[in-house]
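ok trying this again, last paste got cut off
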Amino acid sequence: MPATILLVDDDPDLRQLLAIRLRSAGYTPLLAASGAEALGALAANRPAAVITDLRMDGMDGLSLFEHIRAKDPALPVIILTAHGTIPDAVDATQRGVFGFLTKPFEARELLDLLARAAALQPSQTAKPSPKDEAWRADILTASPRMLALLSEAGLVARSEASVLIRGESGTGKEMLARAIHRASPRQDGPFVAINCAAIPETLLESELFGHAKGAFTGASQAQTGLFQQAHGGTLFLDEIGDMPLPLQVKLLRVLQERQVRPLGATQAIDVDVRIVSATHRDLDAAIVQGQFRDDLYYRLNVVSLHLPPLRERREDIAMLARHALQMLAPRLHRRITGFTPDALDLLQQQDWPGNVRQLMNVVEQCCALSTTSRIPASSVTRALRLKPATLLPLAEARDQFERDYLAQLLKMSQGNVAQAARLAQRNRTEFYRLLGKHHLDPSQFKAAAQDMPTQE
């Protein structure tokens, strides 16, 4: 698939000339006449690189670059200018611009820059190829934000840098950590994960560092800690923000010395481990509150990746729901072909505070209780515990209240119309008319009252 290049220039002639050069070199140009137009294009597509003029009306090239870097730091930006000076180039490269070319420039010079930029980017397809993108094959997405994040993850995976993954609960932080491990030189080593919030403080130290035989009451044999188990691979510390302060000190020492000393042991053991950690907490606030050590934070947060919540990548909801249904239906022995259009619309309208994990749970409930080949919106409404509508038209709301009110009176009077009419302060003729309007049969309420168990 040809790499897409976003070309931004307010000169239409130069824009078309560059587009012709890009097409002849095998790229797919995406054209924008201004910085604002470019940001709109980036909201819908993630190119392999951006080429932008420096001097443009409104938003100039450097301002556009700052907007891009704030949302997608791994997207290469090449700036072109006819007014280039050495200070301009120095300033641009210091800010992180991938390349800076002064007009007139050689076409080969630009194409060489583009080749280097495109080589850094992952495939732009939602379904990665088994050969090149197997490391992230479990992460399904069509979201430009997620594709940008995966581009960053692929770059950092090649290094030994510690990675801190931020994101709300249920966004898939462990899945991203596993993808980073698979893309790293350590892919043949072990991937070991631990949830720091799920293990009591008294046991967490032993789990991480191990213990010698007899180190404490009940330690009948030596235990290898997770650091040793992850030797040569990756150790994933989930919910690192919930680690107790005393253990934070010991973890920092292990990271600094690259050695662990099991509880009760007299000698330290060398460990070669790459740390990937994750948290849903605001660690900057935790540092201010004295709940997290800043020196440990800087050790863990060499590279920070932020997983967006599902409500900020709604284009992925339908894809994830269908994928979950394909996995779950055979397991639950259901023959379900998909969702109805209104059911998918309803899924995409939700904010999903529990993110992908909540979506999977809702799909599983719908699948388990489905009696049809396609899951309708009513099943989604029930699984989400939603009211059928958040705001009813006035006439419909009045009718619903009136029907519920009359039904409540009939329940209280056990179907006795005279008594229910007195409670409503209406005559029997008018009360019967209201019952007929709402198709309420008093005899059904009498039968229901008779079927109720009596208390001894």
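PB: full thing came through this time. Residues 394-448 form one domain.
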